[in-house]
Amino acid sequence: MMSDSLNDPRLGFRGWLLTDTPTSRFHARCVAFYSGWLKFRSNTMAMVGLMILILLVLIAAFAPWIAPHDPLAQDLAGRLKPPLSEGHLLGTDSLGRDILSRLIYGSRITLYIVTLVALIAPIVGLLVGTVAGYAGGIVDAVLMRLTDIFLAFPRLVLALAFVAALGAGIENAVLAISITAWPPYARLARAETLTIRNSDYIAAIRLQGAGPMRIITKHIWPLCISSLIVRVTLDMAGVILTAAGLGFLGLGAQPPSPEWGAMVAEGRRFILDHWWVATMPGLAIFIVSLAFNLLGDGLRDVLDPKDAG
Amino acid sequence: MSRLAFRDLCVWFGEGEDRVDAVKNATFEVPSGASFGLVGESGSGKSTILRALMGLVPNWSGEMVVGERKLGEKRDRAFYKEVQMVFQDPYASLHPRHSVDQVLSEVLKLHGFSDIDRRVNALLADVGLGPSYRFRYPHQLSGGQRQRVAIARALAPEPSVLLLDEPTSALDVSVQAEVLNLLTDLREEHGLTYLMVSHDLAVIAHMCEATAVMQNGEIVEMLSVEEMRAMRAEHPYTRHLLESASGYNPNAEQRA
Amino acid sequence: MSEKPLLDIEDLTVTFPTRQGDFQAVRGISFTLGRERLGIVGESGSGKSMTGRAILRLIRPPGRVEAGKLELEGTDLLKLSEREMQKIRGQRISMVMQDPKFSLNPVMRIGDQIMEIYRFHTGAGKRAAYEKAIEMLEAVSIRDPERVMRAYPHEMSGGMGQRIMIAMMMVTEPDILIADEPTSALDVSVQTQVLSIMDRLVRERGMGLIFISHDLNLVASFCDRVLIMYAGKIVEVCDADRLHEARHPYTRGLLGSLPRLDEPRHHLEVLKRDPAWLDAPSVSGRQ
Known about the structure:
The structure holds three protein chains of three kinds.
Chain A: H1 12-18, H2 25-41, H3 44-61, H4 63-66, H5 99-135, H6 137-152, H7 155-166, H8 170-197, H9 200-206, H10 212-248, H11 260-267, H12 276-303, H13 305-308
Chain B: E1 2-13, E2 20-31, E3 35-39, H1 46-53, E4 60-66, E5 69-70, H2 77-82, E6 83-86, H3 100-110, H4 116-126, H5 143-155, E7 161-165, H6 173-190, E8 193-198, H7 201-207, E9 210-215, E10 218-224, H8 225-229, H9 236-244, H10 252-255
Parallel strand pairs in B: 3-8, 3-9, 6-7, 7-8
Antiparallel strand pairs in B: 1-2, 1-4, 4-5, 9-10
Chain C: E1 7-18, E2 21-33, E3 37-41, H1 48-55, E4 64-66, E5 69-72, E6 75-76, H2 82-91, E7 93-96, H3 100-103, H4 110-122, H5 126-139, H6 145-150, H7 158-170, E8 176-180, H8 188-205, E9 208-213, H9 216-222, E10 225-230, E11 233-239, H10 249-256, H11 276-279
Parallel strand pairs in C: 3-9, 3-10, 7-8, 8-9
Antiparallel strand pairs in C: 1-2, 1-4, 1-5, 5-6, 10-11
Helix pairs in contact in C: 4-5, 4-7, 5-7, 7-8
């Protein structure tokens, strides 16, 4: 190896993170993580995406301190003010509410939806996909046909049906989106499992007497998760848009909640005369979706098991 | 006393029209402490015999005996504690996201050992890797080092029989020499019985006391190491194998 | 050899930029190729395959090929445009790779693939191309060329596939054939056939052959002259039939690490790598 000299103590913490000869389990993890980070950092666009998302999290966390106005406070005298007007950087909407403040508070809702969907959908998909792929036979057939049924409906229509059945609201919107979002993950996880299942390292651990539970959770999941994470970040844009779509149709967040999709829907009525009311939340959706896509691309380079090894 | 015995072993894949017979009526025995080779080209069924013994193929008939025990449909953990296998391709047989430490300690845990920390270091020392390799990931290891880790994993349950499926065919010759030497030493130290598959007669002659030559799923000839070295073979296919072991011979083609 | 060489290479370097700085896969090697069978042996990472690819300028950017001289019968290959280079590839210099599965187009009939190459390089008509393809398949000992012409690559065994590859590479009657581990994916019985076909083509057509392999015994018995490569340099040049008398410790080490049928040993020799080999200048393989 060319980098044996990296053990040199003079290199300090960085040397510790770059060594080829880690001395403990924890150390090995740090080294693996740091080399992934170095690879990610070299991708400028992915870093931009990450920065935007960190900014979004900060904005959501400190919303009450950042927002110049109460997002729900109406001011009918000052309604539909254009951007850059006195005290309202992005203007006001039809009820005179400050659009910037509403966007800032809306980031909380967006993050809430994104986080919940990103937790529920891939986990369900991972469970269904890996079990189907590893078990094969009748289990595989049943689980995959079930997946096909979900896939056969257009996503928004299915989500609409669920929200209609469960009642409108953010929680139900999240549930509906998750229910419609897991089948692609199940497909992906199953496809990965099918190739991993026949590899020598799975045969090797089977030859040590390991059972299917251990093989799926300890040997197959770690390899599927990375491609799922990449897929999730790339899908997040779609999730935000679906959430916005549900909000737009009045089935997601309910007024006066400052959800971005609902804001676009409200602004629709004035789009010709007062373009900013719909455009500003639209821009916010666009920027965050783009950030997730950039992040996903960067993560794909780092996490792809095919070359990271 | 024989350690491994195969009687009329048949292995096939598919059913009905699609049935392919991978191994046909293979019968041979491996004495305790011996090293036995299986030679043949790809598709001759040599690796399939190993996989059948390890319980990795669904359809087989005949008899496989390990020690006193006749093998049935399922293999239990006691079997895997006794018989272990090293795979051909060290680039494919290690989990890409598990460090050497994870690989070895998991196997030790599965077999119920308690002093895992000490044993991991002992295993690494056994296969000639220092403790500095313990927390590395496969992508930080060369092919030869990976194969050493795979051998350490196979040795972890302290088996008495090691199945070697072309353990050096993916390695450079200088690394092959190191791994073969390691296998020679390990066999002496641990009193192991080897069943080794290879397409390279020179490797088999170096490692094994006797070998079965396979072609199209059948054992066509049994040879002792002396017969191999003296190039005494009856079957034309074996003779061809022996000749090509020493390089290209322009006159060999007509006889093939 | 008084004859002018087919290929004249001086100070060939292949460089790949990496995050840790430039990595040189081939480090300034020089050799010539006449109408002979020239073997290049080495272990993985020795730069032997890169040498073959560099001659055909098949190194993808950011990899760089540099040379003091890279001449095919007086033509400087490094000065040619990519279009002109395409003409050279296949027509003047052909290459056979290790695994025919990856080199044949799976959705095209074998006959069409051979004919396409022939017509691309010669501009011949369909009829002539067909006859030429049949002739080439016969030349590589394929018994039923008409049937093979109509077949798809997946219907062929490994040995057949490799022979078809050779037929395809030879159809334009190139001056030089570069064979990169052409037989290591094949079983011994087929290996001999493929080698004897290449042997015959070299002898009958006066071609130059660069035979890249890791198998010392094979190269010693098959080639005329051998270059031994280590870490991107040529460490030794010798006549193939005298390979077993080689003097460089690396070559000696490689030979010693091979198990031999005629010389039983308890332990094989283990190659001890001397760091000085890395800095030693490359030996010239020019004649």
